[in-house]
Amino acid sequence: MRNLVYYVGVSLDGYIAGPGGEVDFYPLSDEMTAWITQRYPESLPTHVRGHVGLAADAPNREWDTVVMGRGTYDPAYLHGITNPYAHLKQYVVSTTLGSVDDPNVTVVDSDPVELVRRLKKEAGKNIWLCGGGKLAGQLVDEIDELIIKSYPVIAGTGIPAFTGSFTPTRFRPAQRREFDNGAQVTWFNRA
């Protein structure tokens, strides 16, 4: 059975983006970018891959499917990019987006839990939960692994990593890696 993996960057105070979707306040480094490119190449949008020396058809290592909310999909979509992860099977969970004129993107306007449960039963690599916080909150009981890129910055406000009801859910740290920009990546398994 496939796992649902929430791979996401967060500020020290738990925000994945600023109130307007900003992520440019995260301190990047060449070391971390090279590591992401090598370790999780499928997390890079297709239109970005060439800019970091990665072929558009580079093989996926961990995931072959991505599930995201509309807020995560919109930045590319509003710039005319309907297929931001052409190298992955893409599902956008939204009740307001409507259909997208791209056969590689499936808009799901029904229960995301049922979608993920169905996807977990299919053959393939793991499933990447790309964001956002509202969708992660709805899927918290389905998340098997967290990969948190924690950046050494306080946002103050913005889009939380999880939004929803009070549902304490325990995870156990499995591994951690630090980078020269002060960021850490920590892998957590469901406890």
Mean pLDDT: 95
Shape: globular
Q: Number of DSSP helices?
A: 5
Rg from Cα: 16 Å
Strand content: 25-35%
Element-level helix/strand string: EEHHEHEEHEHEEEE
Largest sheet: 8 strands, mixed
- In whole angstroms, how far apart are the ends? 18 Å
In spatial order, strands of the major sheet run 5-4-3-6-1-7-10-9
Number of strands: 10
How does the helix and strand content classify structurally?
Answer: alpha/beta
Indicate the percent of residues in helices: 10-25%
Which blocks of ≥5 consecutive residues have pLDDT under 50? none
Could you explain the architecture of this structure?
The chain has 191 residues and is α/β, with parallel strands linked by helices. Helices cover 20% and strands 29% of the residues. The protein has an 8-stranded mixed β-sheet with strand order 5-4-3-6-1-7-10-9.
Provide tags for this entry.
eight-stranded mixed β-sheet, two-stranded antiparallel ribbon, single chain
Write a compact overview of the structure shown.
This protein is α/β, with parallel strands linked by helices and 191 residues long.
Q: How do the strands and helices of this protein lay out in sequence?
A:
Layout: E1 4-10, E2 15-17, H1 30-39, H2 46-49, E3 63-69, H3 70-77, E4 89-93, E5 105-108, H4 112-121, E6 126-131, H5 133-138, E7 145-150, E8 159-160, E9 171-178, E10 184-190
Parallel strand pairs: 1-6, 1-7, 3-4, 3-6, 4-5
Antiparallel strand pairs: 2-8, 7-10, 9-10
